[in-house]
Design brief:
Helix content is 31%, strand content 27%. The chain is of the alpha+beta class. The protein has two domains: 166 residues, Nucleotidyltransferase, domain 5; 162 residues, Structural Genomics Hypothetical 15.5 Kd Protein In mrcA-pckA Intergenic Region, Chain A (Roll). Helix 3 crosses helix 6. It comes from Sporosarcina psychrophila (Bacillus psychrophilus). InterPro entries: DUF6933, MM3350-like_sf, Plasmid_pRiA4b_Orf3-like.
Length: 374
């Protein structure tokens, strides 16, 4: 593998660049050193497809083993994408030794610099506890880039194609769960049936549900995982007695949630994969907006052993999602009453307000387009 470094990065590495012949661009990366939040970061951009891998908070000792860290960064980012371990191992085995060399040309440097600029737009994605930043790499690899010929492409999709062609097998191979997610209403049916790879984190499941229901992610949320229980309240994971069910874990979205402990143990959702609880547990809840209190019941309907994709899909669904900040179920019923009466004095206002809140009919094609972009 060739890592083509800028002068700034070469100085930090304290190495002399090697001379190299023309290489396979799939195994060649341009790399630059930048400073973010007063920490040193390195952005690597693949020469073939402009896929990005990001490292953060590197110190002097880390630069001494940069080759090893760069390869591990590629591995962890690919794993976060859901790329199969077989394909990752095959790619990294084929790379051979890492060769540090100079940048190739101005075009490649310009493309790399664009990826470097993009990391500054997503400050909330930095994981300050790790050098490896798969969420950041995945995010900027999903941004359209131009090829200089008035056409555009998505780097992550091109990387998938390249790896598929290189490995001669499916890029993805993961277990997935079919989930029925139902918004808890007394008088209405609002639900989505989703296929979700279980290597996703609960934070990613939050984003999937937001997209599937058309929520705007304005508010806090959490998950509860429920275990089957016997009549004494003791949890069991086998059997069919479900008379009593109590949550076994509360997965929260912010550190601040730990300031308000309840009777259920808490964990941060971002580091917890679905596979830790699915398929062992079949019932979960997702609570969004603690003011309007939108509760979603999640039922694990089945498991797909070999799901050949890394993104979720909506199989079917029913019903419109209420607008944000409508005032809970009661407020939503009042909203619908006004929309049903063009003579109501607030009709025009409510129509415009609903449009601003992106209130719209259930549209499965639009939902699946959004899910594929996550």
């Amino acid at each position: 593998m060739h890592i083509r470094c800028t002068k700034k990065l070469l100085v930090e590495l304290k190495v002399e660049p090697e001379s190299v012949t023309e290489d396979n661009p799939l195994f060649s990366w341009h790399a630059n050193l930048i400073t973010v939040n007063r920490r040193k970061a390195v952005v690597l951009v693949n020469d073939d497809n402009r896929y990005a891998v990001v490292l953060y908070g590197l110190k002097a000792k880390d630069f001494k083993r940069f080759n090893e860290i760069a390869l591990q960064g590629i591995r962890e980012t690919f794993q976060a994408e859901g790329i199969s371990d077989k394909v990752i191992d095959q790619y990294l085995l084929h790379t051979g030794e890492v060769c540090i060399t100079k940048t190739k040309n101005r075009t490649s440097v310009a493309r790399m610099n664009k990826a470097c600029d993009n990391v500054y737009f997503f400050d909330e994605l930095w994981d300050v506890d790790s050098i490896f930043q798969p969420d950041m790499g995945i995010k900027i690899s999903r941004m359209l880039v131009g090829d200089g010929k008035n056409s555009y492409f998505l780097p992550h999709e091109e990387m998938y194609k390249d790896l598929n062609l290189f490995a001669g097998q499916s890029t993805f191979e993961a277990k997935a769960a079919v989930l029925k997610v139902t918004l808890r209403f007394e008088n209405r049916q609002v639900w989505r049936r989703l296929v979700v790879p279980v290597n996703k984190t609960f934070n990613q499941l939050h984003q999937i549900i937001q997209t599937a229901f058309g929520w705007q992610d304005y508010h806090l949320h959490d998950f509860f995982v429920y275990g089957k229980a016997d009549n004494t309240g003791n949890h069991i994971t086998e059997g069919h007695n479900e008379k009593i069910q109590k949550p076994i874990i509360n997965l929260v979205c912010t550190e601040e949630a730990f300031d308000y402990p309840g009777q259920v143990n808490m964990k941060l959702e971002k580091d917890v994969k679905l596979s830790e609880y699915i398929p062992a547990y079949e019932k979960l809840t997702y609570n969004y907006d603690f003011g309007d209190d939108w509760n979603h019941d999640i039922e694990v309907e089945s498991i797909i052993e070999n799901y050949e994709s890394n993104y979720s899909a909506c199989l079917e669904g029913e019903g419109n999602t209420p607008p944000e900040d409508v005032g809970g179920e009661y407020g939503y019923e009042e909203f619908l009453k006004i929309l049903a009466d063009p003579d109501h004095p607030e009709y025009e206002h409510m129509v415009n307000w609903g449009r601003m809140q992106r209130y719209e009919d259930f549209a499965i094609d639009s939902i699946n387009t959004g899910l594929k972009r996550l």
